[in-house]
């Protein structure tokens, strides 16, 4: 059975038109044999059979050939664009709700559609939202559902990302609470993270030194490891769990040292990434 046939079996047979307010452009696709399955998520839709408005997240997806003739993803969508499309709705499965609001894209019939309800929602999503406090300014990036800002981390400016309390929400109270606690006790927390990473990764760092074949390469001690780590980024999820990223000063040939911690500060792991 072909990829196309299998794909179409996931959807009902009825074709109809709807309007969608796109969340963000297509940025990739799943690979299935000789085909690609691109997709875009939408924030709201209108069923043009009934005129019914749904402020509910969903997805449209389609198939294209994965070959040298391919240009882009077959269709071009812009963030917060309003489109009139022909679709087939998916047959519901036991999965997260918004994946049951999934559609096979048949065709894009019209771009830059004017619709009062979707235009109001579009203006709402375009409206800038920020958090201002003693840590600085954090601006909401709706595409990723996080607030982005810069914090002072022991004298170094690092990027901070705070996941919104709810998907597509306007607040990050829990994430901000945890970030404030960490920054208020920055020396204690930073030392703890460095010590844990050194305990977990110093031996591995020396294996990378041996593999480099550098002449007169110096052995890395735990103390040296801690000093060479350079903080670059912190991400706080909606439940308060932390991901911290340190530059490795080439101990792992340019990889990132990633530390995961629970909301209560308990460290889960330290690994290299990137």
Features:
37% strand; 8-stranded mixed β-sheet; globular; alpha+beta; 5-stranded mixed β-barrel; single chain; 274 residues; 5 helices
Task: Describe the overall structure.
- This protein is α+β, with helices and mostly antiparallel strands and 274 residues long.
- Helices cover 23% and strands 37% of the residues.
- The radius of gyration is 24 Å and the shape is globular.
Give a quick precis of the structure.
With 274 residues, the protein is an alpha+beta fold. 23% of the residues lie in helices and 37% in strands.
How do the strands of the widest beta sheet line up side by side? 9-10-11-12-13-14-15-16
Average pLDDT confidence is: 93
Number of helices: 5
Number of strands: 16
> The biggest beta sheet, please?
8 strands, mixed
| Overall 3D shape | globular
Structural class: alpha+beta
Radius of gyration: 24 Å
Unreliable spans:
none
Gap between N and C termini: 38 Å
Fraction of residues in helix: 10-25%
User: What series of H and E elements makes up the topology?
Assistant: HEEEEEEEEHEEEEHHHEEEE
Strand percent estimate: 35-45%
């Amino acid at each position: 059975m072909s990829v196309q046939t299998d794909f179409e079996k996931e959807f009902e047979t009825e074709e109809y038109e709807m309007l969608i307010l796109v969340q963000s452009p297509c940025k990739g696709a799943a690979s299935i044999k000789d085909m690609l399955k691109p997709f875009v998520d939408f924030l709201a839709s209108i069923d043009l059979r009934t005129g019914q408005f749904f402020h509910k997240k969903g997805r449209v997806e389609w198939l294209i050939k994965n070959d040298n003739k391919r240009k882009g993803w077959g269709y071009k969508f812009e963030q917060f664009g309003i489109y009139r499309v022909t679709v087939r709705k998916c047959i519901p499965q036991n999965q997260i709700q918004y994946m049951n609001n999934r559609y096979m894209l048949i065709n894009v019939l019209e771009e830059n559609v004017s619709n009062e309800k979707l235009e109001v929602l579009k203006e709402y999503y375009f409206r800038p939202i920020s958090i201002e406090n003693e840590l600085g300014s954090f601006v909401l990036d709706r595409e990723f559902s996080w607030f982005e800002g810069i914090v002072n981390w022991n004298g170094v400016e690092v990027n901070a990302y705070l996941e919104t309390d709810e998907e597509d929400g306007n607040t990050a109270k829990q994430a901000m609470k945890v970030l404030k606690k960490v920054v208020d006790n920055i020396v204690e927390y930073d030392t703890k993270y460095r010590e844990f990473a050194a305990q977990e990764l110093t031996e591995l760092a020396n294996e990378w030194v041996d593999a480099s074949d550098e002449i007169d390469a110096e052995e890395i001690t735990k103390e040296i490891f801690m000093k060479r780590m350079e903080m670059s980024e912190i991400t706080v999820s909606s439940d308060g769990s932390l991901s911290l990223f340190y530059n490795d000063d080439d101990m792992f040939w340019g990889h990132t040292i990633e530390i995961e911690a629970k909301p209560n500060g308990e460290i889960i792991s330290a690994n290299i990434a990137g």
